[in-house]
UniProtKB/TrEMBL annotation:
Similarity-based family: Belongs to the flavodoxin family.
A Pfam family recorded for this sequence: Flavodoxin_1
Protein name (record): Flavodoxin
Residues in Flavodoxin-like domain copies: 3-161
NCBIfam families in the record: flav_long, PRK09267.1-5
Role summary: Low-potential electron donor to a number of redox enzymes.
Cofactor(s) this protein requires: FMN
InterPro entries associated with the record: Flavdoxin-like, Flavodoxin, Flavodoxin/NO_synth, Flavodoxin_lc, Flavoprotein-like_sf
Keywords: Electron transport, Flavoprotein, FMN, Transport
């Protein structure tokens, strides 16, 4: 298997989403980076990263801890997708911002980033996770739109399935 999910989660939302994505993609491996750090990331060619936003637009703390190592991983030739957790009602000016830091780093490192999604159906003022009117990955809001989560995961995993599981190179 060449595909895995790496996530961190403070209150369990990203963990739950990671497990649902894994299930939808034929039970691919899931790593909690608070336990494994950045180890194993380089072993995979197709990778999904899960990052929640905390403290006004910051990456969740376990992500911050591995950031110095993460920055130096070479993602050239790897296909990656990002999902993020946020709260659009309480943090409408920093909604899911942390995804952008991961995106920028992956992009600089030459990763092939897939899984952009529409911002339609969300209500917020601004988000660093938006580029050219699209989120840089899947955005889940368990506080205000939990009822949409399963469908959003289903749509997204169908969207990225070919890139993640059937890529030939
Ligand atoms: C103190 C605090 C700060 C937060 N800051 C943000 C924020 O800046 N932007 C955002 O979109 N969500 C923010 N959130 C919402 C979290 O991203 C949300 O609760 C998410 O589901 C947490 O996922 P996790 O439990 O997997 O870490 C914040 C939540 C708390 C409690």
């Amino acid at each position: 298997m060449t595909c895995a999910i790496f996530y961190a989660s403070k209150s369990g939302h990203a963990k739950e989403v990671a497990n649902k994505i894994s299930f939808a993609l034929d039970e691919i491996r899931v790593f909690d980076i608070s336990l494994t750090g950045s180890e194993y990331i380089s072993d995979y060619k197709h990778i999904i990263f899960g990052v929640s936003t905390w403290d006004h637009g910051q990456m969740q703390k376990d992500w911050q801890k591995i950031w110095d190592d993460f920055k130096y991983i070479n993602f050239k030739g790897k296909t990656v997708a990002i999902f993020g957790l946020g709260d659009q009602k309480k943090y409408p000016d920093e909604f899911a911002d942390a995804m952008r830091y991961v995106y920028d780093d992956l992009s600089k490192s030459g990763a092939n980033i897939v899984g952009f999604t529409s911002t339609q159906g969300y209500e917020f003022n601004q988000s660093k996770a938006v580029i050219d009117d699209k989120f840089v990955g899947l955005v889940i809001d368990e506080h205000n739109q939990a009822e949409l989560t399963n469908q959003r995961i289903k749509n997204w995993t169908e969207q990225i399935r070919a890139d993640m599981l059937h890529a030939t190179s």
